[in-house]
């Protein structure tokens, strides 16, 4: 059996591509109009930010950038089920998740602009730094969840990663440990069907990612990742199970990366234009949600334009303010390695500082 996306079943969907929702589930989940609008605002804001950042990279104003366009529903639907005291352990593609959890745009810009402190989330936020090592964050997330279990903090850890990460040893070790120790963790895999230029079928022989949960004795769920309502439902249920002490869940959110892997990549070299166009023109998560919201009388074309302008102004203002800052001195590179300063690194930092000052003196002489 195939669903409206033409994909294999067992994929949970609450909102179809015509913009029709399963009203009974909405009621059951207590999704009211305010929450629907909140979901939409975060998705649209994410889209505006993503577009702006791609342009900034093209203009040489930030470093390499990895677009998350097309994955907004998976990120917003899942992140909105978490409490502030829950932990988020992201990869590099979850900017929207991190911002929902409280990370401000300025912090994200600092990272993209290469500030050494830019990948250090504020101390009062239960958010881990961006992880670029594929799957490296999975055992770390399990450790965090185990610690919060031992401390009886009642917090849940949401660990995000891509389809490619499921081929790494860290994924399997992490899931096994989490299940054996029954730790409160939700593994949220954004299956965007590509690991740079490697398609899913070339990196695994199993039919789905969610079925891998069976081997570890945990719940596995496959969800339409372009359906914000379904992503909200399955994550909410997984978070509740974890909070009740019933252990981890593996969620596979089936979605699609509409753009290139990063600005250092060119998807035209390995993907068919028709495939990309299908997902961009017919399966876009934001367009689908807009259809639904319009039918419900919660959104108009004019309203969309007003929101876009509002978000654009907000982003412009943050960028303008940020670009007034001078770049960080190079010796700051030593400041973010260890929690406490290390004498050898301190020595190296002083050396670099002195040599920079020496260069400046020679330059001015
Ligand atoms: C351990 C490791 N191996 C290889 C890489 C190079 N690399 C960077 S992104 C990537 C693909 C990851 O694909 P996926 O997990 O599906 O995430 P996506 O980029 O699609 O969100 C690879 C192989 C890396 N960063 N870390
Ligand atoms: Mg991927």
Question: Could you explain the architecture of this structure?
Answer:
It is a single chain. With 365 residues, the protein is an alpha/beta fold. It has two domains: 11-328, 3-Layer(aba) Sandwich (Rossmann fold); 330-365. It is 47% helix and 9% strand. The chain is built from 14 helices and eight strands. It has helices spanning 23-28, 33-58, 72-79, 95-100, 105-112, 137-150, 169-181, 200-203, 212-216, 228-243, 273-281, 285-295, 301-323, 343-364; strands at residues 11-12, 87-89, 157-162, 185-191, 194-195, 198-199, 219-224, 249-254. The strands form two sheets. The protein has a six-stranded parallel sheet, with helices on both faces. It has a two-stranded antiparallel ribbon with strand order 5-6. The N and C termini lie far apart (77 Å). The model is unreliable at 1-5 (pLDDT under 50). The structure holds thiamine diphosphate (TPP) and magnesium ion. The site of thiamine diphosphate has 14 residues, from strand 5. Magnesium ion binds at residues 162-164, 192, 194-195.
